[in-house]
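Notes from hallway chat w/ T.B., transcribed later so I don't forget. T.B. wanted the structure written out for a chain they're using in a teaching module, and asked if we could keep both sequence and structure tokens in one place. Agreed to drop them here.
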Amino acid sequence: MVGRAVWQGLLAGAAGVVVMTLGEKAEQRLTGRPDSHVPARTLERLAGLPERPGRQSPLVNRVMHYGQGALLGVLRSVMAQAGLRGPVASAQFAVVRLTNDQILENATGVGAPPQTWPRAELVVDLLHKTVYAFATGAVADILAARSGPGPGQRHAAGRPARRTDAGPLPRHQAYGR
């Protein structure tokens, strides 16, 4: 499952970033909002690269933007492989994506907590990250479904609805052996 989750997650995450980026570019054309250089600054600090105030590297920005999205896709793929699929799982993943951004940006001193942001900026960020999460989730779910239901789905099928008397699946059923 792990090897499959990695390649499928990288693919799903990359697809999610492409969809998010297309949405961002369309939104920027409509609103006139400039590109953000926070991804580049964050990666520069994380990697110990020299900072270039006033001159941001589009390459470093893209590496962080696409790399972070692709890598986080692996987590969404693990969710799908385990049986956490669909819109609820994608909504859960949106929180993970937002949290990851905030941890990296705030830990490096590049960003500030979202509650301090102008509301319009916060709404735009939430919208784009949610688009990423749902696009990534759709691809991860489709790829995972090719292997059949995940352990959580098999468990739910055995005892529909959440019940206190439903124990775990036997190991051979949980791991598909």
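Follow-up for T.B.: The CA atoms of residues 159 and 166 lie 7 Å apart. Might be a good example for the class.
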